[in-house]
């Protein structure tokens, strides 16, 4: 939200005609009449070329029209003339925030707050920046300041809930999300209030409270307050649960109702991600209906469950039959959305750690659990590869440190809860995934995936933990042999049964 100059801030400073033109220029800007507003500003600047307030209004108009670089230059020019206006700093920070340059944005909001510490929007926006920089405790403090200064904005409560959620403080997060909905209904203020339904849904999913998640999604859908994008998010969220618990007809219906997910112009990152789930689950259901993997689905209710805990990679093996140590099991997949290995080795407690521990704690003693995280850590656009390039750290050091801590943590959990943990490696990357990189960089990425699996094998061997070596099964000279991939990242339902069969024969 743009910070505006205080009412009557021009009075006593300029002539009546300039005061009138500046006031009218601001009014036209607020009415989205940008050309008329700029015309008045230029008229003023022709007489007073160093009038900071006029330059600031020019910058606001440039920003509103998407001319970010021009706006940045104008904001900086206004600040150079008068650096005592908090709105100048705050609005420059908003541009950097839109561009996701959280470091530069933070500096701007800090300068604004040094001038006026009680600005609710600046405190809120600084909280967003700190949150995105991983400084969650500081983000929480600034968000609470924003709420103290304005308790009527549902966005502030919603963001506080997200911070609590990311820190693994699930009960506090639920209170904040519900408060966000309550504040919105009472004050009708806030831009992203309906996202609280998705956040509550995600929270219940992380808590493995699936019925609560479904009920939350239904409440959001029935509220008739959601955009089409938000409706699709909740419908696809329900699809995930229906699929995991074998309610395939309900899953198909939710998929059909959310087909529009693939047709939004300029979709956000969230919509792109949730659209991947739509395509993936739809594909898995079609494959099952086709009967091509009929031999994988021979489980019955008398079989014991073997659990497969992962992000989306656990969907394909769900309900397949495997044989382990001469006993047949039915695979029951459990889900932690977006989880990476790196999340489980961070010192600060987070939602992924809390979700995994709470899930494993509730399993029967003696359970056998496949842990299948790591593929997201091993993508060209996120995880180890881009981190190593940016930080200039040797990828071997990064992988050695990360996997050592990861398996030590899993070993400790296994011992505490008296369960057997089986590790699932990272498949050889699909050629189309590799080809997203420039050709000179491709071999470096291939080497990282190979080394990751090599280290995983060595540590599992030393710890005497069972490894399902999906890399060896899928590998052809560092790339996928294309016998198991059903899209750029995911593998077919037959993969896990074959891996267990290979274990028995080794």
UniProtKB/TrEMBL annotation:
Keywords, sorted A to Z: Repeat, TPR repeat
Presence of the UniProt keyword Repeat in the record: yes
Ranges for the TPR repeats: 86-119, 154-187
InterPro entries: SGNH_hydro_sf (IPR036514), TPR-like_helical_dom_sf (IPR011990), TPR_rpt (IPR019734), Ycf3/AcsC/BcsC/TPR_MFPF (IPR051685)
UniProt-recorded Gene Ontology molecular function terms: hydrolase activity, acting on ester bonds
PANTHER family the UniProt entry points to: CELLULOSE SYNTHASE OPERON PROTEIN C, TPR REPEAT-CONTAINING PROTEIN MJ0263
Name used for this protein in its record: Tetratricopeptide repeat protein
Species name: Shewanella gelidii
